[in-house]
Amino acid sequence: MRAITTTTAVWVTALMAALPTAALAQKEPVRIGVIQPLTGSVAYNGTSDVNGSRLAVEERNRKGGVLGRMVELVIEDGQCKPANSVNAAEKLIQKDKVTVISGAFCSSSTMAVMPVVEKNRIPLVTGVSSMAGLTERGNRWFFRATETDALLAQSFAKILVNNLKLKTIAYIGVNDDWGRGGVSEFSKQIEALGGKTVLKEYFDHGTTDFYTLLTRLRANQPDGIFVAAETQDGSLLVKQLKELGVQSKVFGVGSWATNDFVKLAGAAAEGIYAAVPYAATMDTPRNRGFVSVYQSKHSEFPGKYAAAGYNAINIIMDAIERAGSTDAEKIRDALAKTDYEGPNGHFRFDPKGQAYGFTVVLVQLKAGVPQVVSSTTVETH
Amino acid sequence: MELFAQFLANGLVSGTFYALSALGLTLVFGLMRLVNFAHGDLYMVGGLLGWAATSQLGLGFFSALALVVLMLAAAGWLVDRFCISRLRDQGEEPGILFTIGLSIFLANTALLVVGSTPHQVPAPVPNEPLLLGPVVVTKARLFAVAVCAAAITLAHLMIQKTRLGKAMRATFQDPLAARLAGINTERIYASTFALGAALAGTAGMLLGSIYVAQATIGGLVSLKAFVVVILGGMGSFAGAILGGLLLGVAESLWGGYVSTGTVDIIGFLLVILILLVRPYGLFSRRAERA
Fold first, then answer.
1. CB B80 within 8 A of CB B194
2. Domain residue ranges in chain B
3. pLDDT of A284-316, one tens digit each?
4. Separation in Å, CA of B216 to nearest CA in chain A
5. What is the ipTM of this complex?
């Protein structure tokens, strides 16, 4: 029993270390809740999001916070599981009395949190969850400050078919709502332009050995391979593709244009295309500033999820400032009128809470650096 | 036919990896009657230590492997002497609770120290494709299979041929009789847990060079190891090897001819089948333990 008590103590210490140091201000700080996966197979990406979120808060607090009060993040681990994310949301709302919530990464988790915020009348902003249906649910408290699979597919299908000259395409996705959504949206758009589907397969989060899947893929000899995967799964997959000697062009969605991806995939990363809402090499003044601050803090380039966290929290803080109070209804209305210039373009929300006006890019990894091949602005349909 | 050969090869390679990953778990269960839920996390610690020793300290692969084996064996010994020894002969529940706690502790300590970033242990041989007829494998994988086979053989020889191994088997058959015969069973238990931890660490580092080492993989590894151990029979050495190969090949063929998205089903289907037909596993040594 003694051992268990020690374990609990370490848990508590670990949790406390994970919380941001409370800002020292006389006035009660404005609390923003963050639900991200900090353990589990996408923990790495969730942590990037939290890093970006923290950076946004630090910048704002140095300039005096919002409404003359400091901003404090209350960070919870939702593990990308709907049940844990709902618990986290309930805790943030009931116990920590947060004003707004940012989260919850995986679309399935965000979907589970949405009724909770609606019931409690708390605005929810996601910078990550890309399943198209989320903004179609008529939840007026929900805002999505990122692209959907459908918008990304629409923006890039033409470039893939016409510029990269892909005729036969194999689709591989991680076996969850996001991966399946990405595969179905991209295949739909590409098929409409005449691209032929030769294989559609899925793998589970945390899969390490892709030889079987890739053996089948190799037998089909596609021109292009579409992959919807995150850093750890994606890097292993790409490496094993090269080990098996597959020569097809690889393009994907997910956190591909990141340093860690390049480090893990090594030489196999060369020449890969990625359709991403953010790349550290995007050439805007706002992005240059963001990259240099992020880099000095974490000694790596910010990836897609760091930018997502940074944008979501900035949009929230802007809205609180414009609302002039922490009244939920006023913040919601202010969020709807968002007009935010982020590192990756300009964000506004349509009446359903879907962001538009920002830039998405197709990058190609060359010598480990994501070079922007083409960029396009997301418009709502 | 070419596809089948490749699927079979893929399955045998991953099956060997499964076998080594599960070996420590089955030994600890067979000899100590302890269900070690922290097995996957010891594997993870081995992988991360291997990464730290090679990429951060600049050691060669084999000296790093020796270091990992020593450190995990020492850690396993200490955990047994200071924690598990107090839970002995108190039924199974305290042991289960303890190892679950140990698993949470290890995973979160690793998250705190290394973070959630996946890391790669540099392989000592190049990762070039090698063509054996129609079948593609890489040198790094062949090397890993060879090291797995060597580690399994070493563990087997140690249990069958050495004095310590004999004492382990005697304790496994009847702890009381072993004590009466003058065997220091406390030392045997500590050595067994140390051996289990060292095997987990070896697997973690070796597979960290093929796949990745990451703080959060423990749970998945434990899950697969439990499947292998139940297939082969809890506590059976040969069973763990056969169970590993069976799982690897079954997963590969299912993924190849049915679908890769549902590949995790096959392991549990096999477990249910085995539990129905041979509830003590393919290679149970239950009879020996009267």
1. yes
2. 2-277
3. 889 999 999 999 998 888 988 999 999 999 999
4. 6
5. 0.79
